Amino acid sequence: MRVPRRLSAYAALIAIAVVMLLAPTHASAQQDTEGAKDHPVVPRMPGFYIGDFTYNDFESANYPWKPDVDKTLEGKHWRFTYFIKEGQRHPSELEILRNYAAAFKAKNWTVEYLEEPAKTVFSLKTATSEIWCLVNPSGGGGESYQVEISEKAGMEQSIELNAGELAKALDANGSVTIHGILFDTGKATIRPDSEKVLATIGELLKANAALKLEIQGHTDNVGAKAANQTLSQQRADAVRQYLITKFGIAAARLTAAGFGDTKPVGPNTTEDGRAQNRRVELVKK
User: Fold this and answer.
1) How far from chain centre, in Å, is Cα 146?
2) How many domains does the chain have?
3) Does the pLDDT at position 40 exceed 90?
4) Is the Cα torsion angle 160, 164, 166, 169 positive or negative in sign?
5) What is the value of pTM for the model shown?
6) Rounded CA gap, 121 and 88, in Å?
């Protein structure tokens, strides 16, 4: 049956409208999606814009690390998809990776995983932070690529024990694990964001003049056992000295002991388990 010419033209217009409706919005926007901005230390390739973006204050993410082994990080998490702007030269997938490698090398990042031209994982570790970044141009043909970034951090607790609740926990259990006493990586230097938790312990000791505590330090099993033992003792000593100096607690009321990695409370095979094992405990004497 012959289709009338007018009907054929109408059908063609409908088809074009459907294609336009289904086309991704980034094709015409040519600008960063609303609310999106680059990570402060991870740049973008020139001539690209953010077409897709997500951010979470706390999320778990896996990064290729070693053969058949992923690195799990918990903390702030960004995910970007960058698209080439109209009229810009399309770089190859390998060119995108090599540009990021050169930029990161200049800033002392480490290559943790390399699979050219599919993807590369970089990390930046300092005394106070750890950032991992995956760059994946695979399948984009130079028109798009993905970047995923995690900043390692513990989840901020929304519920904290006050001095009275600490006293009840010690009376009931004889010990309590304290969350929020944080140290510089590999050191016994107490970080400033630990002050609120330490102030609660100081308040507890002042309100209960007869209370004596042993401050126990614990680590995960990363590193040599002897080094972990020493570090845990130094951290327990640092907390003890802080309470004595800052709150005037009598030295005889506080002792300190380090146990290294000998008393894990979580599996050392996962990042979350190792985070649980890095802790300070108060034990009633």
Assistant:
1) 18
2) 2
3) no
4) negative
5) 0.49
6) 26
